[in-house]
Amino acid sequence: MKYTMTEISHFSHPDHKLMLENSELLFKCEGCKEEVGIGFRYRCPECDFDLHVYRAVPAPNIDHPFYTKCSFQFLSSPPGDGLHTSAADMKYTEAEISHFSHPDH
Ligand SMILES: [Zn+2]
Ligand SMILES: [Zn+2]
């Protein structure tokens, strides 16, 4: 893995910039609290604050499945007597809706 950002701002430590460091010394990640890491970390030298690189910079190729689909579909049967399963219901099941949980689209 290649890390190109050597200096970042992170919401978990907004007062200072965090520097990319590669060290053989163990560090305690402030994001995980208990975990101990070694190697690359983002570090604030002033505060002795360390963060796993993967915590500070999310991998760019991870797509949250929730956001890949911008239109939701009804998967369950519409309310009714359940007898009309033809054209009307097809139309209903393919309708696009806006949903409060995904208001952007
Ligand atoms: Zn961590
Ligand atoms: Zn700091």
In short:
By secondary structure, the chain is an alpha+beta fold. The protein contains three helices and four strands, in the order E-E-E-E-H-H-H. One zinc ion binds at residues 29, 31-32, 35, 52, 55.
Order of helices and strands: EEEEHHH
User: What would you call the quaternary organization?
Assistant: single chain
Average pLDDT across residues?
A: 73
Q: Strand order, biggest sheet?
A: 1-2-3-4
Q: How many structural domains can be distinguished in the coordinates?
A: 2
Number of strands: 4
Low-confidence parts lasting 5 or more residues at pLDDT below 50? 64-74, 89-93
Largest sheet: 4 strands, antiparallel
Bound molecules: zinc ion
> How much helix, percentage-wise, in residues?
10-25%
Q: How many helices in DSSP terms?
A: 3
InterPro entries: C1-like_sf, DC1, Znf_ZZ_sf
Keywords: Metal-binding, Repeat, Zinc, Zinc-finger
Protein name: DC1 domain-containing protein
Organism: Trapa natans
Walkthrough of the structure:
The structure is a single chain. The protein is α+β, with helices and mostly antiparallel strands and about 100 residues long. It has helices spanning about 55, 65-70, 85-95; strands at about 5-10, 15-30, 35-45, 50. The protein folds into 2 domains: about 5-55, no CATH class; about 65-105, no CATH class. Strands 1-2-3-4 form a 4-stranded antiparallel beta sheet. It is elongated. Mean pLDDT is about 75; it is low at about 65-75 and about 90-95. The protein binds zinc ion (2 copies). One zinc ion binds near residues 29 and 55. InterPro entries: C1-like_sf (IPR046349), DC1 (IPR004146), Znf_ZZ_sf (IPR043145). GO terms for molecular function: zinc ion binding.
